Structures are given as structure tokens and as C-alpha cells.
Amino acid sequence: MTFPADRAATTPETLVFDSSTELIETARARFVDAVVRAQEERGVASVALTGGSNGIGLLRALASDSGDIAWGRVEIYWGDDRFVPTSHPERNSGQAFEALLSSVPVDPARIHAMAPSDGEFGDDITAAARDYARLVGSDTVFDVHLLGMGGEGHINSLFPHTAATAEESAAVVAVTDSPKPPPARLTLTFPVINRSREVWFLVSGAEKAEAVAAAHNGASRADWPCAGATGTEATVWFLDRDAASALP
Fold it and tell me: How far apart are CA 153 and CA 175, in angstroms?
């Protein structure tokens, strides 16, 4: 399956599916297309992964069928992660290894996991954020940045009315008071998200419908962080019918 390379950059594309299974399968096919296209154009593709049921579901689908992706030429980052020990079951990176990365021929040097709380920086979350910001730098541009979303509109670990959501310069910040446990997290910020070529939302559930509608209606990112994320070439909403139920 192939898709046009010239999708509109300014108008979000909204796709609505009868089930999460259909949502994930379409995202899988388009992910393969986007990564292969990036590798053809630039040699290496860069992606930012997300957690959540759809984010991990997409990774499992890719483990079954990743088409012509050359996994040795994919730079892999995360949009956020929990600042907990390496073995903690809520680590996004650990879930990604279990779902996909342990079964495809990735280059370990191209896997850029955020530091855990038992890593080289110990419990110094500020140092861990500073190091990941150094790694991302000012030049990293993701070909695809995957995003899940909470019912209050949070993306990555950017929650409404927080300093992390208002950040305009630092690429990565530490979050120590996340309203969703665990409280300590590392997260990419809007300056990095919004220089991504494509930003994809993978969203299911009626509890997300209000946030989806707010983003589509031009809400403030301070109130609804999901409203502030856009790609330079494409912004795509993959929604099930429940998540899309408040749209016109």
C-alpha cells in the first residue's frame, strides 16, 4: 500500500475507524510508507515513539509486518517516559522493546531511550532531562512523531496549565508532579514536537472525544495540550468512532 507524498501540511487530516484494530492497521501501513520514504530521501529515518494501548498496538503490528523498513537505518526516540527503574512495567521504552524492538534488526546505537531512575544519573531527573536535550539537540527532526492523548488532552507528559506545556526553548524537561502517576517523567516539548515532519495522534475512547473536538476547534494548548501539536508536512488524527463522536 502506498500513499501520496504531498499531503497538505496546514490542514489536519482526520481518519475515523470502526475499531482500534482498523486504526492500528492503517497507522501501520502509513508508518511503513513514511519511514521507507524518509529513508529513500535522506538515508535514515527518525521517529519518536509513544506508549498507550494504540501506540504499543502499532508497534506490535509492525513486529508482524514492517514492510520494506530498513530497521538498521531508523533513529528511535521517545516522546516521553516515566522516570522509574529500568524494569518498571510502565516504562514506555521497555514496552516498546517487548512489542517490537526485540524482534527487528535495529541498530542499538540508534535506540535513544530516556534515562531511568536507576541509570547513569541516578535519581537526578534534571540531569537526565539535560542529557536527553543534548541528545535531541536543535537539529533532530522526526519524520514521524507518534502521540497518544489523555482525556484532558495531554500529549507526551505535557499536561494542561503546566510549565512543561508552556516551555518554548528547552527540548526536554523534567516533570516531577504529573497529575497522572507516576509523578516523575521526562518529556519532549512543543519546540521539538512541532518541528516534526509528521505528527500523528492515535486516539480511542469516548472519554477522549471532548479533547479531540477542542483540538479541532482551535483551542488553546494551555487548556488542551493536544491542540498545540502540528507537523510541518502533515498532522494526522487516527480516531475510533467513540473518540470522534464530538466532531461535527
Answer: 17
